[in-house]
């Protein structure tokens, strides 16, 4: 075992990694060696040693869609340093501080109108847990405890903790293992694809009927608006969000939008809900909230939901993560939102969209490619077979790009600051992966 501070070679690091470190969605011990990243700056990841001839990779993933402004950003670094010198953390029970207050105010200002209150937590999945707890508690406090199930559409993804798993796609993906153990929720068919497609009347009617039929037991409908992300990178018409809003109002069911992946401009609107002009009762944001620097998420709700909870026999929201409202993360989130809103985020996302459309067009004619689609700063090439991860990684790295396909999907969600040449390079890498994987 090396001394605590001894310099470790890349081989030593990888041997220890294999021995001790459990990676996301991986076996233990790991079977494929990960790439060791030494540093990151702008849109580039610098590897500790070259892989397939490349030492630097253009990041097509923005660290799972969070690093909007790229890495090592001087404004975000300064915000972190400044806050570190004051305090990196204090508990949030009984104490408060300016970074969290400013952040909550700003989130209320930029999210759809009736959202008024903000519960800060430490990850997207936890923010979804909090959203669900809010909805169930709202009905319990209103004397209707039987309203405790959730309705969602298939092909969704809301996180890996227990209740969010229960509203992920029940058949596809990783959570099938737990069917029978998870709470049983109500599933509608996946929304018909196509952002620009006219809403399908039969589908909309079926959605309304399902909500009506289960209304007595439903606390809430929860969906990813406009883009279903980790459940298949599928885009749908914003019209379905209006259908959900109307049906929820008609049948006394709360509506939750999970904007963890879509928030802060990713789809071309500041929030995906804005495409539909619809406001949810509860909304989750995360991922890009801190510009990818630290883990933080937020659950917003309306006055009606908060007042409903406060009327109950237990008039508090019984949730309090240790690192709730972390000042360091909140200060960086404020700086990141400041950067985003002061700049031309809409123009930048439109530029990225145009670059992705142009660069990915070549994939459409490749054998094994089922569909190519772009919305905002999201580019997707869907294959007609699952991608071979080892081949895919090799092809992308050879092209000087970091990509991480899943299932049949080779996709990119790059930082908005990715320049045109780097965008073209990402697209070439996506096409290279589609050719071999
Ligand atoms: C829509 C959506 N909800 C929830 C989550 C879970 O967030 P986290 O990974 O921060 O727990 C994700 C993560 O990919 C997501 O895309």
TrEMBL record:
Pathway where it operates: Cofactor biosynthesis; biotin biosynthesis; 7,8-diaminononanoate from 8-amino-7-oxononanoate (SAM route): step 1/1
Record has S-adenosyl-L-methionine as a keyword: yes
Organism from which the protein derives: Streptomyces litchfieldiae
Family to which this protein belongs: Belongs to the class-III pyridoxal-phosphate-dependent aminotransferase family. BioA subfamily.
UniProt GO MF annotations: adenosylmethionine-8-amino-7-oxononanoate transaminase activity
Chief location: cytoplasm
Keyword line: Aminotransferase, Biotin biosynthesis, Cytoplasm, Pyridoxal phosphate, S-adenosyl-L-methionine, Transferase
The reaction(s) this protein catalyses: (8S)-8-amino-7-oxononanoate + S-adenosyl-L-methionine = S-adenosyl-4-methylsulfanyl-2-oxobutanoate + (7R,8S)-7,8-diammoniononanoate
Gene: bioA
Residues carrying the site annotation Participates in the substrate recognition with KAPA and in a stacking interaction with the adenine ring of SAM: 25
Binding-site residues, substrate: 64, 157, 287, 320, 404
Quaternary structure (record): Homodimer.
Name of this chain's protein: Adenosylmethionine-8-amino-7-oxononanoate aminotransferase
E.C. code: 2.6.1.62
NCBIfam families linked to this entry: bioA, PRK05964.1
